[in-house]
Amino acid sequence: MAAREEKNMDTIVHFTHRHPLSISTIQCRARHNDRCGMCSEILDPIARVYACQGCSFFLHEHCAELQLDISHPFHPHRLHHHIDPIAIGRGCDACSSRGSYPFKSWYRCEEADCSFSLHLKCALLKPSHDHHRVEVLQNSHGHSLLVCDRPNVLHYSCTRCDTEFGDDDKIYVCLECKCMLDEPCAAHGQEIKHPFHSQHTLSLVLYYVRPPRCCSLCGGGGRNGYFFTCSSCDFCLDVDCANLGETTTICKADQGHIQIQPVTHPHPLIQVEVMISMKNFRSCCFACGLRFEDLVYACLSCGILLHKSCADLPNEITSHLHPNHLLKLVKNSFWYHKRFSCQVCLQSTGHFFYSCGECDFGLDVKCTRSAFPLIMSKYHEHALAYIDIETHNFECVLCIGICRQFYFRCLRLDCNFSIHDHCYPSLPLSIKDDCHIHPLTFADYPIKGVPDDPEKEAELYCYACEEGRAFDRITYFCSSCHFVAHVHCVITAVRV
Which of 19, 30, 44, 410 could form a disulfide with 417 if both were Cys (CB 3.0 to 4.6 A apart)? Predict the structure, then answer.
């Protein structure tokens, strides 16, 4: 049992550790990847914890409140604490987790013929009292639901869609389904009627088999193996696409509908409504591989989702990164995967790709939409592109560190020159650019969003492109006007 000293609540004796534990703050420790000794979550940088400094053992305050044996509202019997493998075979009865790392602490019922188990994070959940909302969702879900508040510091994700719960989100636990659900998933029943397959009812099924089913709409493998499937045919939707609803059909003008002319895609497209928040909708565009921010278009014939712009990609483009040849649109299928990797990011994002027919140069769709200014340098014989997106890892020729974002790189196929922008030997100390009336000074120190902002709370923008900027990145700066610009926004025409 977790015993606490009556006179000094800053020190406790806990059943998980042989030494007394004293209250501590993480800032005073040298290491930053320590985990709680019970729930195994990485400790928050501002958290107060119970610590044995000599053993580097730590417990969250709320984890330290748990005893060796507990009563829990999810189960009528008392539960006993175990370490690791007791519940791995059948999983947690609240979320279906099967005990893989980092779930090493479990509570298990030891009554005869009862194997009810909770991993520690679910043992910390306590039902709240939002009875009206629970009744509404239970009518949709079909089973009794327990609504819980998310404990501070700990992280939880929906069993079905894998979306992480926010600070103010309610957690809906169904002990019959052995799952914890966010509100959109709780609102779905075990069976649904969906406009993309209106002829049959779709039933919720969990697939443990590998490889898993593929969603008939987006081609994805589903979130945690859950699909809404048709028992009469081979149609299925993952939980993300089950949250899509039909709104508008877009096809040719002579049929009396809104006109777009999808060069890339020949079939009619359906503009679909996302019935959950976009931050929780994690399906990606088939063409470019990026997530959706607003409108989503679906082709039911091919089973793919597209941005509107990706449904209208040109068959050929020119690029300043490869000026001597046209780049032609190809489908980046598995057959082409090794041959066609993007020359900028060295990734194969999405299924569409622009490739040079005369050499091996190619760009994925997302990289054709970025500026990547080129500079001529006295330190290298070829033009260098300024890469401001996250890419594959490259080695800086100067510091031998990893270049992944904000660096210069030669894009020639036979060259491997990369260098951090902050390592570059001769970025000009002053630049005159059309974006500002005054000369701009090189700043290798942080620039605040507002000059007198002691808390650094003002939002940080590049005034040249009006996009956000990172506080610790090098910039060009006008002290007279407090004008701040990204390096890549003002070096385009400069020889350095």
Answer: 410
Answer yes or no: is pLDDT of 477 > 60.
Answer: yes
200 token code pair:
């049959």
Q: In what order do the strands lie in the sheet with 258-259?
A: 258-259, 244-251, 269-274, 296-299, 304-306
74 C-beta neighbours (distance < 10 Å), count? 19
* For residue 8, pLDDT beyond 60: no
In three-state secondary structure terms, 140 is helix
For residue 89, name the pLDDT band (cuts at 50, 70, 90): low
Contacts of 345 (CB under 8 A, 6+ apart): 364, 366, 367, 389, 390, 391, 392
Q: What is the mean pLDDT of the chain?
A: 77
Are the C-beta atoms of 454 and 482 separated by less than 8 Å? no
For residue 317, what pLDDT is reported? 93
Distances (CA, A) of 150 to 181, 395, 492: 12, 42, 49
CB 328 within 8 A of CB 315: yes
Q: How far apart are CA 450 and CA 460, in angstroms?
A: 9
Instruction: Compute CA 386 distance to the chain's CA centroid, rounded to the nearest angstrom.
Output: 25
- DSSP-assigned letters across all residues of 263-324: SS--S-EEEEEE-S-GGG---B-TTT-PBPSS-EEEETTTTEEE-TGGGG--SEE--TTSTT
Predicted confidence band of residue 165 (pLDDT cuts 50, 70, 90): confident
* CA 156/CA 128 separation, integer angstroms: 16
Q: Mind listing the pLDDT tens digit for each residue in 101-118?
A: 445 678 888 888 888 988
pLDDT of residue 318: 92
- Write out pLDDT tens, residues 318-363: 998 998 899 998 876 544 444 567 888 887 677 888 988 888 888 9
468 burial via Cβ count (<10 Å: 0-12, 13-18, 19+): exposed
Whole-number Å distance between alpha carbons of 7 and 269: 70
Q: 389-416 burial by CB neighbour count: b if 16+ within 10 A, else e?
A: eebeebebbeeeeebbebbbbbbeeeee
How many helices and strands (H and E) does the chain possess? 6, 35
Q: What is the four-CA torsion angle of 385, 389, 390, 394, rounded to 10 degrees?
A: 10
- In angstroms, the CA 168 to CA 161 distance is 18
